[in-house]
Every structure is written in structure tokens, then in C-alpha cells.
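Let us work through a complete example step by step.
Step 1: write down the sequence.
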Amino acid sequence: MKRLLSGLLMGLAGCAQLPHDLPPRPALKTPEVAATLQTLAHASAQHDDTPAPSGHWWQTFGLADLDRLIDTALKDAPDLGAVQARLRMADQAERLARLDAQVHYETDATMVREHLSRNGLFPPPIGGSTFTQTNLTQNLSYNLDWWGRNRALVQAAGNERQAAQDEAAAVRLGVASAVADAYFAGADVEARLQVARALEQVHRREHALLKVRFDLGLDAAQPLIDARKKLDLDEDRIRGLEYQARSLRYRLSALIGADPDHAGDLPAPALEARLPPLPDRLPMDWLARRPDVAALRSRVEAAADQSAAARADFYPNLDLRMMVGLETLDLGKLFQANSLSASIGPALHLPIFNGQTLRAKLGLREADYAAAVAAYNRTILDAARQAADTYALIASLEQRSQAQRLALQETEQTRGLARQRQTLGLANPLDALEADSAVLGQRMNDIEIQAARLRARVALFKALGGDATLKDPAP
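Step 2: predict the structure and record it as C-alpha cells.
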């Protein structure tokens, strides 16, 4: 007992001194977003009796072409290959950490031909002789891990693996949302392009009618010049929309892992999508469940585990070592019983003379922890801002959509009256063409707003982390 106590005291006396100048650890932020998001959610919540399809969030739009594009992107997108490689690396790193915490095995086999000097330490007949030294040993060692260093390293590796999984989920969410956003942006542009071409035809008929009136001397030249300007603006708008349509097809092609030559084979995007209803309430822990936020939280925990392992290095530790082997000067006697050699015993590690290095390593780990916390705090604040901003955008678009639909209805009524007056001979044909032009302009505005509503829903899914966080929480 006295020997055990004396050994324990000697071990404690061999501890290295922990640094006293480490800065305090930063705290993890929890943004106050519940009231803001609840207010916006109640202001813009919609109820839909149509049940949302189970599975991935993009299926709530009810577009088969969009589902196929996203499924293809999640299989063939280049970014996912790098993510899977990082995930495999994290899996192997955790496996290595677990193996390092277990019993270590090492097998050595050596064969050395040696000639001893006749004038050396050993006199003849040993001196001057030549022999072959053959060794075959099996070494085993086990670290008792009194202070939890190995356990902390295993936990750190597990948290890094979890972070890699969350990062993979974040990349998948980013790819899916990028495809959906590009799809609805393309649908917006192509729908407006059709309306722009129809508007150009109306303006051409208007220009032709004004030219006839000018040639007959019924009108001045200015109306004809203004009609020509409208056609020029129409042509410029059409060229711009055609470029945007091609560019968005190239973008969508790249997102699904295809080259630009296959952009023309993509399905024509459509705006006839079901608008997913907004949740009445938001889960209080939705921020923590976002995959990018969850990944950074795992990074913080891994950094804390690495720091705990660095602290454990300041204390003595004990290894148990055992060696079993065969040793002989005659290779023919290697497997005889008399060639057996063995040893067993503890090895005490005293860090007292390595304090400066240990303090530097601990300071590095604490700095890593502070950096991980800063990244987490920045990301969680950005996530809260993105969700609040998206909800505000949705609320604004809902109001604009209602006003735009009312304006479109009024413009269509005005066009109907203009056509009736023209049929009765009470109005100029130019009045009906102007009414047609006004209706097409309002339709173009309506298409843009409806596409913006769909893209805002995609942004909401991304801001809330995808499937898990857009479901209504249990009461």
C-alpha cells in the first residue's frame, strides 16, 4: 500500500502545470427569432386541404419534371462526389481513433549477420567470431487512459464524422434548392417570353394601322413614331428574355451534371405548380436542425473534445507493455523452447518536462474552439436572418399577388368593354389594341410575381433546412 501511494504521489508530482492565461471560452448564441417568425407566419400562413406528398420537400410542388431533375442532380452533381469523399475520410478517421484507443499490436522479425571485433569488448573466442542474430517478437501495449484522452479523441472523431454527414445533407439541400430555383426562374422567363412575343404582334398590328392612317392623312407622324419605338422595345425585351432562357437552361444543365450541349433536351419548365402552404407555427429548435448549423455545432463539440484531450496530456499516464518473442544465434534453433524470450511491465509517462509544448498545444486547441464557436454564431444569425427575410418576402408577395390579380381583372374588363364598343362601331380599333396591350403587360407582371412566389417557397425550404423543419410541430 505504501508503494502504491508513493507511486501515485510521484505521478501527481510529475503533472505539467496548466496555463493560467487562457482566454475565457465564447458562448454559443441563441437568436431571439420566435416572435418575429411567428408574427410573419400568422400573417402569411395559408391553409390547403390538399395533402402534401410524403418524401422530399420538392415533391410538394407537384411537378414530375422538377422531381426528376432534382433526383438526377442528387445522383450526378459534381459537388456531391467531393462530399462523399469527405464523409468516407471522416469514417476512416473515426475508425482509426477507435483502434488507437484499443490494444496495440506490433510484430517484428529481424535477421542480422554480425562480426565481432577481436580487439573489442569481448575477447576471443567470442571476439572475432561471426554469427547471425535472429529475433521474432510480438509486442502488445495498452494505454490505461486515466484522464480520458483517448475517449475524448474518439468523441472528437465521431463529432467530425457527424459534421461531415450534416455537411453532406447541407450540400444536397443546396443542390436541390438551386435546381428548383433555376427551374422556376426558367419557367418565369419562358412564360414572359411568350407574352412578350404576343405583345409584339399586337404592337405590329397597331403600327400597321397607324401607318395606314398616316398615309391617308388622318394622323400626324408622332403616333407612328411612338408605335415604332414600342416595337423596338419589344424586340429588345424578347432578345433579352431569349438570352435569359438559354442561360438558365445552361445553369440547370450544369446543376444536374450535364454539359451545355444537353441543355436543349431539358423539359420545358412550367409555372403550373402547387404552392406549398406555410406552417401556422414554427418549431422552436428549427435553427439547430438546419444541416449547415448542425454541422458547425458538431465542429464545436469536436473542438471541445480535442481541447479536453490536450488537457489530459498535462497529467501522467500509464502504459502496460508486454513482449513475447524468439531469439537465437542459430537459425535452426529459432523455434525451440530455449529460444523463448518475454517481458511485461508498466511504462509511466511524466509530462513535467514538456510543459511548454503542452501549453502551446492546449492554446491552439482553445483557439480552434473559439473559431468554431464564432463560425457557429455567425451561421446561426445568418440562418435566422434568412428565414425572417424569406417570410417577409412571402408576405409582401402575397399582398402584391392579390393586388396584381385585381389589376389584371380590371384590365381584362376594360378590354372587353373596348371590344364591345368596337363591335358597335363606337370606338376606334386602336382602342381595342391598346386594351390588348395593357392586358398582356399585366399578364407579364402577374407571371413574374407568381414565379417569385414559387422561388420564395424554395428559399423558405432552404432557410428552414428542408423536410424536417417545415412540418408543423406537435402541439
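Step 3: interpret the result. The longest strand covers residues 130-143.
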